[in-house]
Amino acid sequence: MRRLHFLEPNFRITVRDPTGAVSQWLEHAETEEALRRKYEQFVFQLEEVQPYDFNEWKKKAAKQTDRVLKAMKEGKPDRELKFNEALWRELKQYLFLLAGDRCGYCESHVPASSPGAVEHYRPKRKVEEDPEHPGYFWLAYDVTNYIPSCTNCNSGKGKMNQFPVAGTRARAREDNLEQEKPLLLNPFTMDPSKYLRITPTGDVIGIDDTGRTSEKVYGLNRGHLSAYRRRAMDQAVTKVKLWLAEKEFRKKRLPELLKEADYPSASMVAALDAINAHMERQRRELEELKEAAAPQQEPDATDKAEAPPGPPAASK
Questions:
Q1: N or C: which end of the chain has fewer CB within 10 A?
Q2: Partners of 118 in the beta sheet?
Q3: What is the largest CA-CA distance in the chain?
Q4: At 102, is the secondary structure helix, strand, or coil?
Q5: pLDDT tens digit sequence for 258-300
Q6: Domain interval for residue 260
Q7: pTM higher than 0.85 for the full model?
Q8: 234 and 118 housed in the same domain
Q9: How far is CA 133 from the centre of its chain?
Q10: How many CB atoms lie within 10 A of CB 120?
Q11: Do 243 and 216 share a structural domain?
């Protein structure tokens, strides 16, 4: 699990894949020129770039939120409370783009054959740990509550409607969410590396209650995940060994390995951190050996102190 950063999309692009299929995606870039340079590296052909105002999506989200709040105030049964799933699906491609086409929880690659889902960090309809809770319906259209998720993490064996907290649970829009003290990590607002540790075998271990609960609820050690993390760490070590053999190797090139990772980059980061720490220890030890082996230099003649006068010669 790794830290993600949400940036509001500001371009809508039209792309054509190698099969000729055309799709429209949301993107973020400083300029149109930068966006076009980015897609020169991909197999997708960038056909059209248009400015995109994310405020338009926010307006639709606010309208849907007001509709849900009104329905709840009128006391409509849960079965009659309809959510407009198409609205958050508009952001699914963009959320996975921000996550590098990985699940925001377990970091599994989400292939085209299994497009994944937009998962609600705080469940919108009910809460597993609190049967009387109506769900965080007022956050159904809040973009800060969205996590790109693989099928496994969004299934009955995954997170689903679980949301354990250590504090006071919010039950209405007016309640303070910060007082909940969630026991589940949100990669968009929390740094998982402060709560989780990856072992040399590829297993994820929680450092505190939040980390341990997240590992269990998200199933971060299920099935193949540990093996894939171990493979990613081995790949990082192998690439560093090859690069160390090159005369032009420099430590600053290590971060480039992250771009080539074919599985959870958190695993690559863990491996690279260990390698960097090991290299730093070797550098320090080498410097100490050099200092110890360096010959002592004789002081300059001008720096030599005058020898004290010797004892007077004995008289004959």
A1: C
A2: 148
A3: 128
A4: strand
A5: 555 544 466 666 666 766 676 677 667 667 766 766 655 555 5
A6: 227-291
A7: no
A8: no
A9: 30
A10: 24
A11: no
